[in-house]
């Protein structure tokens, strides 16, 4: 059993897009060594909430966040918080694989380079190799690191994006439906990878697939209409939900 | 029930009508293209017939003269090159930075931003003679820069070219997928790094195309330069951007005005040189676009 350590504590979070409230009073704990899944029907706010955790919602005009989100006890919406540092510590993998239209090597090396994590070429090579190995992609691409990242298959591209996120040594990895554009085999590979990665990182995954949530996560939060209906140990949510709405959703009555 | 058999005469007639409409449309399109090409071909043909004989080494290296046989195009060509250099050096950085700011950093939905956007779009549609008046009033009368010089000409044309670069630059930046920007921000790039490392390089082909089209327009421009005195008789090629100079289209205009029949050949020859230059610039635009185009 890996050590579980509280990483992110979100308390009474409200998110507004202009006048419209997208998230209503959400409180969730996210721990290292644990995969936390957010499930729920489309438009329930799970992706919105995920994006508040590394302030990617800053890029959306008119988006406003209330409440407190603490990373290691430090409020990430406080004025002293540096967004660049936050996003280096809380990495993100997106729904659609989005490698830079540059070489595979450059894709992984970009983050470490801007943060000055490698002193010389050998250090950088080591970071790139380590990241690609952890993302389970090294053996497939080690002989063609100079090729474009966009030439890879969809599943490989997504693992490249994971390697890119890992390369800056984040503490948390946010994944926004990382498998929705992938076939079942590529999905299985990403799921194995998530399982390996949880040893070192706190992982949060948004997914539309309840089977996926059940397979990869240890904690599950069920979102509905901007609120968290139920949050707890994944097994309990799926076998013995406390709330009627959770039960209806996981048995496929709506969604 | 409606007759649904394709063999029925009514259905066959209907099909024939549709095919005929198809043929009519294609014919109409061909006529439209042929009409415009015909005029271009006619222009090229007359120019080549009249002017080709006038193009020789002396013509390409000489400067304006009162004697048609010694008059050459180099003085005006050098004036054009210097003027374009000033225009590019001013309008490209200004235009690209303005486009980047408006597209990536300006707060969305603010009144002053919308006002700036509308102004730039209008600026691109302002008649060029107005820019000439502006150049005369500001650069010559207020700033006392040398009259008839490529410096003032280039600055005036830069005002005209900048909105074109801003508009094409914004479109090129808008066309970069937002996912690339997100990817950069998510590994901790600052907004400026995301733009300069990822968005701008991907938008560059579009920006360059717009820039060269704007420059080609400026190269053929005459009206604003009339206002700032670049229609003077200049018998020696300008040595720098502050010397009196003329430009190619102005030279063509001046020669076409001459009473001496010998200048007709010079006019046509200068038009050929200008057209070749313009085509070379358009060719460069296409080459750059293809070279830097990235697929994702």
From TrEMBL, chain A:
This protein's encoding gene:
pstB
Give the Gene3D superfamilies listed for this entry: P-loop containing nucleotide triphosphate hydrolases
**Annotated compartments:** Cell inner membrane
User: Gene Ontology cellular component?
Assistant: plasma membrane
Give the protein's recorded name.
Answer: Phosphate import ATP-binding protein PstB
Citing just one GO molecular function, the answer is: phosphate transmembrane transporter activity
The reply on keyword Acetylation is: no
Entries under PANTHER family matching the protein:
ABC TRANSPORTER I FAMILY MEMBER 17 (PTHR43423:SF1)
Residue ranges constituting the ABC transporter domain according to the UniProt record: 8-250
Q: What does this protein do?
A: Part of the ABC transporter complex PstSACB involved in phosphate import. Responsible for energy coupling to the transport system.
Instruction: List keywords of the entry alphabetically.
Output: ATP-binding, Cell membrane, Membrane, Nucleotide-binding, Phosphate transport, Translocase, Transport
Q: Which organism is it from?
A: Novosphingobium arvoryzae
From TrEMBL, chain B:
Q: Which positions, given as ranges, span the membrane?
A: 27-48, 81-102, 123-145, 151-173, 194-216, 269-288
Q: Which InterPro entries match?
A: DUF3333, MetI-like, MetI-like_sf, Phosphate_PstA
Q: Which CDD domains match?
A: TM_PBP2
* Entry's localization field: Cell inner membrane; Cell membrane
An annotated GO cellular component? plasma membrane
Q: Which SUPFAM superfamilies match?
A: MetI-like
Q: One GO BP annotation here?
A: phosphate ion transmembrane transport
Q: Pfam families per the record?
A: BPD_transp_1, DUF3333
UniProt GO molecular function: phosphate transmembrane transporter activity
* ABC transmembrane type-1 domain ranges (all copies): 77-285
Recite the UniProt keywords alphabetically: Cell membrane, Membrane, Transmembrane, Transmembrane helix, Transport
Under NCBIfam families, the record lists: 3a0107s02c
Family per UniProt?
Belongs to the binding-protein-dependent transport system permease family. CysTW subfamily.
- Designated name of the protein: Phosphate transport system permease protein PstA
Q: Which organism is it from?
A: Novosphingobium arvoryzae
């Amino acid at each position: 059993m890996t050590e579980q350590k509280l990483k992110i504590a979100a308390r009474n979070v409200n998110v507004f897009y202009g006048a419209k409230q997208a998230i209503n009073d959400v409180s969730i704990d996210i721990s290292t060594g644990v995969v936390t899944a957010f499930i729920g029907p489309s438009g329930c706010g799970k992706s919105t909430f995920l994006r508040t955790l590394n302030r990617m919602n800053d890029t959306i005009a008119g988006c406003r966040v209330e409440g407190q989100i603490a990373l290691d006890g430090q409020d990430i919406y406080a004025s002293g918080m540096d967004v660049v540092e936050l996003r280096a510590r809380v990495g993100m993998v997106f729904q659609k694989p989005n490698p830079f239209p540059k070489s595979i090597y450059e894709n992984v090396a970009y983050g470490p380079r801007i943060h000055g994590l490698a002193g010389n070429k050998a250090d950088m090579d080591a970071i790139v190799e380590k990241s690609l190995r952890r993302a389970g992609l090294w053996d497939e691409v080690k002989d063609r690191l100079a090729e474009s990242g966009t030439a890879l298959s969809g599943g490989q591209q997504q693992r490249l994006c994971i390697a890119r996120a890992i390369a800056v040594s984040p503490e948390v990895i946010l994944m926004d439906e990382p498998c929705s554009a992938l076939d079942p085999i590529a999905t299985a590979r990403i799921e194995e990878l998530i399982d390996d990665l949880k040893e070192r990182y706190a992982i949060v995954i948004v997914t539309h697939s309840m089977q996926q949530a059940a397979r990869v996560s240890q904690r599950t939060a069920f979102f509905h209409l901007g609120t968290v209906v139920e949050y707890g140990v994944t097994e309990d949510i799926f076998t013995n939900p406390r709330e009627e709405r959770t039960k209806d959703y996981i048995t496929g009555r709506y969604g | 029930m409606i007759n649904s058999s394709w063999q029925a005469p009514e259905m066959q007639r209907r099909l024939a009508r549709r095919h005929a409409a198809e043929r009519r449309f294609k014919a109409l399109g061909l006529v439209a293209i042929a009409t415009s090409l015909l005029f271009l071909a006619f222009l090229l043909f007359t120019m080549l017939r009249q002017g080709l004989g006038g193009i020789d080494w002396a013509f390409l290296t000489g400067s304006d003269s009162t004697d048609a046989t010694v008059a050459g195009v180099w003085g005006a060509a050098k004036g054009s090159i210097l003027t374009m250099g000033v225009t590019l050096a001013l309008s490209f950085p200004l235009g690209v930075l303005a486009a980047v700011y408006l597209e990536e950093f300006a707060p969305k939905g603010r009144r002053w931003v919308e006002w700036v956007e509308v102004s730039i779009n209008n600026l691109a549609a302002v008649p060029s003679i107005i820019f000439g008046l502006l150049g005369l009033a500001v650069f010559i009368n207020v700033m006392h820069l040398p009259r008839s010089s490529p410096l003032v000409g280039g600055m005036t044309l830069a005002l005209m070219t900048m909105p074109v670069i801003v508009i094409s630059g914004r479109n090129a930046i808008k066309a970069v997928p937002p996912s690339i920007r997100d990817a950069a921000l998510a590994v901790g790039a600052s907004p400026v790094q995301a733009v300069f490392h990822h968005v701008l390089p991907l938008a560059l082909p579009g920006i360059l195309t717009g820039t060269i089209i704007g420059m080609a327009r400026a190269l053929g421009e005459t009206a604003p330069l009339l206002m700032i005195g670049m229609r003077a008789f200049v018998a020696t090629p300008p040595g720098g951007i502050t010397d009196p100079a003329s430009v190619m289209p102005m030279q063509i205009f001046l020669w076409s005005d001459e009473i001496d029949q010998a200048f007709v050949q010079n006019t046509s020859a200068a038009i050929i040189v200008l057209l070749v230059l313009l085509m070379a610039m358009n060719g460069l635009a296409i080459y750059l676009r293809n070279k830097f185009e990235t697929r994702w």
